[in-house]
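call fold(seq) -> tokens
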Amino acid sequence: MTEQSDGTGKRIDHVDGNNLPDNEKHLAVLTGAVAGGDPALFADYGLWLRSMLSARGVRADDANASLSDLRPVLVRHLPRPAAAVAMSHLDAALADIDAPAVMPPSFVDPAAANGDLARCYLDRLLDGDRNSAADLAERSVQDGLPLQNLYL
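ret:
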């Protein structure tokens, strides 16, 4: 095992050049997709992974490599028939991940009741400003928004 910097000063544990925490997450989702017989589940995960990493400034090639790194692990540790099934799921994800990026739709509907409030709250959270987000919610209740509507 070696430790390498990810360029931000953080240390990442690697075995055979692979990032262990990421591989564990990828393998957990891959296992679920294989168990459910649904390659699209892992393909959707690959698209989400690329979108999430892109939002954090990680190149698409690195997202692809993150999943491609599973290939030797599957071959080395699974019986041939199981590896073939897992590889077909992995290949489906890798084929989709190379397609042009599409941002997933927002679950916040600005036309819904309190849609603007929900968008502002989410934007503040995504900006890492949880105190401002909490203040926004508290002020909304103080201004007369029923508490149950805050959670809907």
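Confidence is low (pLDDT under 50) at residues 1-17.
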